[in-house]
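batch_manifest entry 22 of 60
target: Maleylacetate reductase
source organism: Novosphingobium resinovorum
requested by: lab member K.T.
priority: normal
notes from requester: please return C-alpha cells only, no post-processing; we will run our own comparison against the previous entry in this batch. if the run fails, retry once and flag.
--- input ---
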Amino acid sequence: MQPFVYETAPARVVFGRGTSQNLRRELEALNFGRALVLSTPDQKEQSLRIAQGLGSQLAGSFHAAAMHTPVEVTLQALEVLKDVQADCIVAIGGGSTIGLGKALALRTDLPQIVVPTTYAGSEMTPILGETENGLKTTQRNPKVQPRVVLYDVDLTVTLPVQASVTSGMNAIAHAAEALYARDGNPVISLMAEEAIRALAHALPRIVATPDDIEARSDALYGAWLCGTCLGSAGMALHHKLCHTLGGSFDLPHAPTHTVILPYALAYNSDAARPAMAAIARALGMADAAMGMRALSMRLGAPTSLRELGMAEADLDRAADLATQNAYWNPRPIEHGPIRNLLGRAWAGTPV
Ligand code: NAD
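--- output ---
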C-alpha cells in the first residue's frame, strides 16, 4: 500500500491551437479590465500582437523579463504596473516571463493569466525563484500560482529546435523526480509517466520537422503534465544540482537540466526501482538513466557540463555546495559519490 495525500491547485487550463486569441474572453469571464502584458525583449512583438486583441483591456506592457527573475527588473515592472493601474497580469513567454509575473503577483496579490511558450512548466507551479545580489532563492507560495493558463500550440512553433530540446528535457526532469518524490501520489505518477512518454516521442519529431503541429502539440501536452508534477511533488537531487550549477556557476537553466538528468537518475537508480521502471517504460528503453542519455544524444542535445562552459576547477566547489544543506533524496547525498557524478557529467562519460 502507498499512503498518500493528494492536493491540487485550482487553475483553469485551456489547451489547443490559437487559444491565445481567447485572452479577452478569459479576462472578461474573470471581470478583469486592465491587463499588464509581460514578455522578454525577444518576445516583445509576439506578445504585443496577442495583446492587440485585448483592445481597451490592455492597460500597459513591460518587455524586460530576464532569466532567474532579478529583483531589480521586478521593481521596474512594479512601477509600470502601478502607473497603469493594472488589475491583472498577463505573462506571455517561458519561465523567465512567467517568473516576473509571479514576482509581481507576490507583491500585489493580482491574479495572473499565463500564455506559456516553452516547456519549462512554471505556469503550473506555486514556485518562484528570484535573484538578488547574485543569490537565487526559491519559495513555494500559493499566491504566485497562475489563475488561468492558455496553452497555444501555434506559439511554440517559433521556439528554436535546440531550445525546444533542452526545454523538453527540463520538463522531463520534473516528471522523473516526481516519480520518486517522498510526497508523490498515484495520480502524479500516472501523469509523470505519460508526460515522459509524450515528450520523448515528440522531441525527435520536432528535431526532424520543427513546425510539425502534432509533435508540437504532444510536447506541450507533456510539458503541461510535467509542470503539474513539479507543482505537486517535492524535487530531489537532480533539481538541487541544477539549482547549484545555475545559481553559483551561471550555467544555462534548461541545458544544465539536460546534461545532469541521466547522471542523477543513475545515482538514484538502485534506491528508486519502481520509478526507474516507469521512466524506462515511458522511454521504451531497458534502463532509465541509459535511456535518458540515449534520448539526449539522439536529439543532438548537450551531454557534458564542459560543453556548457563550466571549468573543471569548479567541480570541487560545486560538490561542496550541492552537499552543504541536507535535503531528502531516495539515496543519501554523500560528498564522494556526488563529486564523482559531477566529474562524469562534466566529461560527458557514459552513465
Ligand atoms: P526563458 O523563458 O528564459 O526563454 C528563453 C528565451 O527563449 C527567451 O529569450 C524567450 O523570449 C525565448 N522564447 C520563449 N518562447 C519562445 C518561442 N515560442 N519562440 C521564440 N522564442 C521564445 O526559458 P525557460 O527555460 O522557459 O525558463 C527558464 C527560467 O524559468 C529559469 O529562470 C528557471 O529558473 C525558471 N523556471 C521556473 C519554474 C518554476 O516553477 N518556478 C519552472 C521551470 C523554470
